[in-house]
Design goal:
The model has no long low-confidence stretch (mean pLDDT 95). The chain is globular and about 55 Å long. The chain folds into 2 domains: 238 residues, 4-Layer Sandwich (Metallo-beta-lactamase, Chain A), CATH 3.60.15.10; 73 residues, no CATH class. A hairpin with a 3-residue loop joins β12 and β13. It has 11 helices and 13 strands. The chain is an alpha/beta fold. The longest helix has 21 residues. It has a 7-stranded mixed sheet. The chain has a 6-stranded mixed sheet with strand order 8-9-10-11-12-13, with no helix packed on it. The structure holds zinc ion. Zinc ion binds next to loops.
Length: 317
């Protein structure tokens, strides 16, 4: 079980949640003086495996002091209710806009069922467990979480979702970014660095806000960022500029597809071509097919999100 845990500088760890596949979603944690602060929980199924891994490492659930959620999409927050139930001393910190969804997950659940259907939703996520209101702390811009003499600063981080925060850890000078600083899979990393791309999942993608968030993260000059999909990256400035460029490219693709009958398919196809062209400029030798498989879910979600955003903009005009 512990082979799923990687360790980094300053007592930072990554647990491979094994959601969808290996090295797709991470549960990060800091182990300071045998006390734990967790960032994102993945799903119920992952959270159970995570507790087993802690058990193997002789860490009791009672040691967990904080569970921080970057945002309340279910691959980040689906296991939060379960973990809070199992970790009696933990407090849950989440963006003010996410609190009600954690206390009463019915609306969140309904939206997932509407996308996947009840059976598939239950298979993927298990049952969402509500969190006791008294154990939830709403956090926002500029707030500090104190954890074992360590200070973690919260930044509001909209663009991917309105309920998104990023967490800057002063001790390691690193940032836990959820989906606010893109996605970078280890399979696409080589000596030139990481292959990063924007996640524009429905329904709150906002490129202008996203741009501000990416710049805000870059301004902190973090030595590394820990992405939920998937874990540590180090070339922050280079990746930051690439993300800013991609926001423009995503917008252009959306605009070009606006009048198209099968808008979503068109956007998906253009996103694939855009990203694969970027991949070809790296030293990685990965076929179109392998690349398409690896990014399949992300391309579909990104296309859905861009179509949704496109239609929203159209209505405003
Ligand atoms: Zn997300």
């Amino acid at each position: 079980m512990t082979e799923l845990v990687s360790s980094f500088e300053k007592n930072i760890f990554c647990f491979d949640a094994n959601y969808i596949r290996n090295k797709f979603a991470a549960i990060h944690f800091i182990n300071q003086n045998n006390k734990l602060l967790i960032v994102d929980t993945a799903t119920n199924h992952s959270a159970k495996r995570f507790l087993n891994a802690l058990h193997t490492m002789n860490i009791a659930p009672e040691s967990v002091e904080w569970i921080l959620l970057t945002h309340v999409h279910l691959d980040h927050a689906g296991g939060a209710g379960f973990l809070m139930r199992m970790c009696p001393n933990a407090q849950l910190a989440v963006h003010a806009r996410g609190v009600r969804h954690m206390v009463n997950p019915e609306a969140l659940w309904a939206s997932v069922v509407s996308v996947y259907g009840k059976e598939e939703a239950e298979k993927q996520y298990g049952q969402l467990i509500p969190v006791d209101e008294n154990r939830v702390v709403a956090v926002g811009e500029g707030e500090i979480i104190s954890f074992q003499n360590r200070k973690l600063q919260i930044f509001d981080a909209p663009g991917h979702a309105n309920h998104h925060i990023v967490i800057f850890d002063e001790e390691s000078k690193s940032c836990f970014t959820g989906d606010a600083f893109g996605i970078a899979y280890p399979e696409l990393t080589n000596e030139d660095g990481e292959f990063i791309f924007i996640s524009s999942t429905p329904t709150q993608f906002e490129p202008v806000k996203f741009d501000i968030t990416v710049k805000k993260i870059m301004e902190q000059k973090p030595q590394s960022c820990f992405l939920t999909h998937f874990s540590k990256i180090i070339n922050i400035e280079k990746n930051g500029y690439e993300l800013l460029k991609q926001l423009d490219e995503y917008v252009t693709i959306s605009q070009q597809s606006r009048t198209c009958d099968s808008q979503q398919d068109q956007i998906r196809e253009k996103l694939f071509e855009l990203l694969y062209k970027k991949l070809e400029k790296t030293n990685l030798s990965i076929s179109r097919r392998e690349f398409g498989n690896l990014l399949s879910l992300d391309l579909s979600l990104n296309a859905q999100g861009l179509e949704y955003w496109n239609n929203k903009i159209n209505k405003q005009v």
